[in-house]
Amino acid sequence: MLGAKLATLLGLAGSAVGVRMLPDGEHPPGVEHLLHHRYCQAVMRARRGEAVLLTPDELACPAAAAAFGWRPLPENLHSGQGLVGFGIVSDPAVARRMFERMPRLPQGLCSSIHLYPLDRATGAAPDVVLVEDEVEKLMWVSLAYLHTQGGERLESSTAVLQATCVDSTVVPFSSGRLNFSYGCYGCRDATDLANGEAVLGFPGAILPGIVAHLEFLAQRALPVSRSKKAYSALRRPAVAISG
Question: What does pTM read for this prediction?
Answer without folding.
Answer: 0.94
